[in-house]
Amino acid sequence: MSKVTSAMVREGVQEVLAGRERKFRETVELQIGLKNYDPQRDKRFSGTVKLPHIPRDQMKVCILGDARHVDEAEKIGLDYRTVDDLKKFNKNKKLIKKMAKKYDAFLASDVLIKQIPRLLGPSLHKAGKFPTPVYHTDDLAAKVDEVKATIKLQLKKVLCLGVAVGHREMTEDQLTANIMLSINFLVSLLKKHWQNVQCLYIKSTMGKAYRLL
Description:
globular; alpha/beta
């Protein structure tokens, strides 16, 4: 049974949206504190879930593409790198890291996926940005939206984590739906489910934190 209801989340979203407006678009973040969890001994969880509404539509995405995907990328204004571009890096870690920093996520033509470690080494994997495969049967624009709508929840060495679930220009309904799905997905990853949740907050970049639990 969920300890956080849709009505509770909606009330929190109303509080966040009622805060003072800033001159830039603020991100809305879900912050989670865990308990009865030992990151050293217990298995560290990691999972991704696609939210119903894109939380970070300004995410920068790049495709490492074959000729067909490069043509498609040009048509929809998506940044791309060809195999020749990747070969020019000559496994130079600095240049590869610079590219990894420039983008929030990568896609790659399925035929190129196996070549990526050979061409670029482990840099993208270490940055947590290993490309998502895309096939010729996929709609490339829809795949980009899917990547932008997907969030990752991962426990590292500390018992608190935060994840962007939206921004202040989204509607109350959109934010509520995204937050509810994020919370329920997180709880499903935990060993003892709700018994591992110490506290839940939502806040905008510059706003006050609103406690849900």
